[in-house]
Design brief:
By secondary structure, the chain is mainly α. The chain is built from five helices and no strands.
């Protein structure tokens, strides 16, 4: 629901920003809504499966990697630049996630 609200807010702000991203085709809207529904549904389904089969703190540490993966994909596919602070933050998140996962595997809690 938060993704839908965020998308609606951004969409309502497009006329203010003089952006040329306005989608007018009904086919394009159907594709955008369909992709958002499918990807959110799959993500939530996998998240709940992970919560059922793994400790919640392990799932939370791994799911925090979402921001790091998004930044890496944006760097390669959208030519975004990462600041030194962002790179350090990504390394801290990755290190913490790897540490938590490794520790839980050592204790056989997964």
């Amino acid at each position: 629901a938060s993704s839908l609200i965020g998308g609606a807010v951004i969409f309502l702000m497009l006329p203010i920003t003089n952006s040329n991203i306005i989608v007018t085709s009904l086919e394009s809207w159907a594709l955008i809504i369909g992709m958002a529904f499918i990807f959110n549904t799959i993500a939530l389904y996998l998240y709940y499966i992970a919560l059922r089969t793994t400790k919640a703190w392990v799932v939370a540490s791994v799911i925090s990697m979402q921001a790091v993966v998004s930044a890496i994909l944006a760097y390669f596919f959208l030519n975004q630049t990462l600041s030194t602070l962002q790179i350090i933050g990504a390394l801290v998140i990755m290190g913490a996630s790897i540490f938590v996962t490794y520790e839980s595997m050592q204790k056989k809690e997964i």
